[in-house]
Structure formats: structure tokens, C-alpha cells
Design goal:
The protein is α/β, with parallel strands linked by helices and 232 residues long. The protein has ten helices and ten strands. 39% of the residues are buried.
Length: 232
């Protein structure tokens, strides 16, 4: 039986929405595809901006019973790890300017800890850091390529640079080139899922819209979307 895929957009510290989305996926699979193997792919950016980055990481580290769970690396995980590895003020300023202070707070630190790699390592812990370092840059199947930001059009996936996979925007977003697989990505927030012949963007800005989106792939009728929304 062909595998069903659920891909979840950028979470950014919204553990409440992630919890609700995973419950929706479990229910959806039970009602529609109980006899099919299923993979849940998260396209990165678990930390920063939202309030509960630590809880998001812990939830993902626990896995999801009955599913293959694939967690990709996003540019925000890369920024956190860069600060773990360096006390360089510019590296830390870049992370703080992209929502890193919210992650510090989620681990019991404050803005005064900015620039202190030792404090960050102690708060995050070696087990979480090892998990973050193991995150893959992409997940490929015969039909789909899951990646955080996108790809350089025309370049084989094995030759893509990490910087592009985590940060690319216009060169990828503006391309109508056939990439050989449907590319499923996050990174660039959109009001509604961005459905193109060669790609689907699923980052609906969970941390500020209160809407986390997942796309269901492998059904006869084409892509279908699930939404988890906050009550307020």
C-alpha cells in the first residue's frame, strides 16, 4: 500500500498548535488511511518567535506512535546552533534579531544570556543539541522533495548548498521550472498554502497568525490541507 505523507509548516515555538495538529493528523489517518503506512514531515523552524520552543523540541523528540516522523533542519535551528558554537557578537545579534530571545526565555534564560554559549548549552542540554545537530536538510521520495526554504533550480539535490536549502527565496519561489519532484517547503510565510505546479509552500506564519498548516499528499484527489488554529 502506498505511503501517505503529512507535511507540517513552520511551528516557531507554537507548541499548542503543534499538539493540535498532530492530534488532527492521527485522527485523519485513522479515519481515511488506517491501512496505509504514514510519514509526518516537519519542514523546520521549530524554535524562535513563539513562546514554547523548548516544548516543541521535546514533543518532536518523543516521536509519534504509528508514524514515521521526519524533522528537517530550518534556518532558525541553524542560527541557534551557530550561537552554541560561537560567542561571536554578530552571530548572536543575528539570532536575537530573528526571534532568538523567545527561545532563550523558553529555556529559562533572558536577554542577558545573549552571547553566552556556555549558558545556552547548559539550558538546552546535550541531548536536545545532539538531536538538533542530526536534523537532515531534506527528505526525498520518488514524488516529493521536502525541504525548509527551497532549492536552486536545475541543481541536483545532492549538490545543493546548505545555505540555499535553509535560506533561499526569490530564485526558487519565482521559478516555474520542473524540479523532477513536487517540492514541499516552508520558510516564506503566506496567508494561504501556496500551490504551484512545481512546489507547495505551507508556512502560514503560525507564530503571528495562530494558524499552523499541514498538507496531505498521496491521495487520488491531489493535495489536501489540515489547519490547526488557536482559540483566540
Amino acid at each position: 500500500m502506498n505511503r501517505i505523507h503529512y507535511a507540517i509548516g513552520d511551528v516557531h515555538g507554537r507548541d499548542d498548535l503543534l499538539e493540535a495538529m498532530l492530534a488532527r493528523i492521527v485522527s485523519d489517518r485513522g479515519r481515511r488511511h488506517a491501512d496505509r503506512p504514514a510519514t509526518v514531515v516537519l519542514v523546520g523552524d521549530y524554535v524562535d518567535r513563539g513562546p514554547d520552543s523548548a516544548a516543541v523540541i521535546d514533543r518532536l523528540m518523543r516521536g509519534l506512535d504509528g508514524f514515521e516522523l521526519v524533522c528537517l533542519k530550518g534556518n532558525h535551528e541553524a542560527m541557534l546552533l551557530a550561537c552554541v558554537d560561537a560567542d561571536d557578537p554578530r552571530t548572536w545579534l543575528h539570532w536575537m534579531g530573528n526571534g532568538g530571545e523567545a527561545t532563550l526565555r523558553s529555556f529559562g534564560l533572558d536577554a542577558n544570556s545573549s552571547g553566552q554559549s556556555g549558558s545556552l548549552i547548559g539550558a538546552v542540554g546535550l541531548e536536545r543539541l545532539a538531536w538538533l545537530r542530526r536534523l537532515p536538510l531534506y527528505h526525498a521520495t520518488p514524488d516529493y522533495l521536502f525541504v525548509h526554504a527551497g532549492i536552486v533550480p536545475g541543481r541536483p539535490i545532492e549538490e545543493q548548498a546548505e545555505q540555499d536549502l535553509l535560506w533561499i527565496r526569490d530564485r526558487f519561489l519565482d521559478s516555474d521550472r520542473d524540479h523532477g519532484r513536487l517540492v514541499v517547503h516552508g520558510h516564506t510565510p503566506v496567508a494561504e498554502p501556496d500551490i504551484r505546479p512545481n512546489r507547495i509552500g505551507i508556512d502560514t506564519g503560525a507564530f503571528f497568525t495562530g494558524r499552523l498548516t499541514a498538507v496531505v499528499l498521496g491521495e487520488a484527489d491531489g493535495p489536501r490541507f489540515l489547519i490547526a488554529e488557536s482559540a483566540s
